[in-house]
Amino acid sequence: MTLLEPFGVDYLRPAQDACPHCPCCSAALCRRGRRDVLECSGHTDAESRSTVAGCPCSAATTEGTAAWRAALTIATLQAAELPLPEPVEDVLRSLAGGQTTVPDPHGFLLALRLRGFVQTSGDLLAVTDAGRAYLAARDGARLAVRGRVLDVDTSENTARVVLDACRPDARVTVLADQLSALTGVDPCELPGLELDAVANLDAERAEEIVLTGIRARPAPLPGQWRKTAAPDGPDGEEAAGD
Length: 242
Prior knowledge:
There is one protein chain. The protein is of the alpha+beta class. 28% of the residues lie in helices and 20% in strands. It contains seven helices and nine strands; from the N terminus they run H-H-H-H-H-E-E-H-E-E-E-H-E-E-E-E.
């Protein structure tokens, strides 16, 4: 008689530590979601996605998350390149000015919600940080600046950039993978890289400074490649020094 071996016990993944800051995720999931613009929902299976959607640990409305930094950048670029229609912007300004309800016969609030510029807080409407970044970019000055990458925290997907700006908190945090994509430099090789960018130096806090137009400054030529021009020689040709 032939005995068939059973397939064995069902193996279950060990339970992970719950996140102390939210009721929906594990601590490990929130660590991944916080550093990625995909948030927690982008790091789980389809069955669990609705459970962790909008997790506050990784949301675009939570200061310091990757999604939050990306939202500020997108809002700033929209303000500079594709501003909202004036009637829609007027609704946003009214809410930013302190109004908690505004007449909306044309459904402009939906457009603002879809862009992440407005959210509901309790029963009241509130402008998000992204909405305020949009208005700041519309109303404030954006200036060309030079910067240098100070250091990179790959575990948090962030890089600190020190700006040549006359303000005490001239160190700005940006997403390391964004900086790498814009400059073509590997994240591990970013420290020390010289940058050109455009920034809102009138921001009240360094966390509210948004860099756009980021590009790497050309590296200086090696010393042996440089030529120092000398006065024209007697034959009218320029002499070159070593």
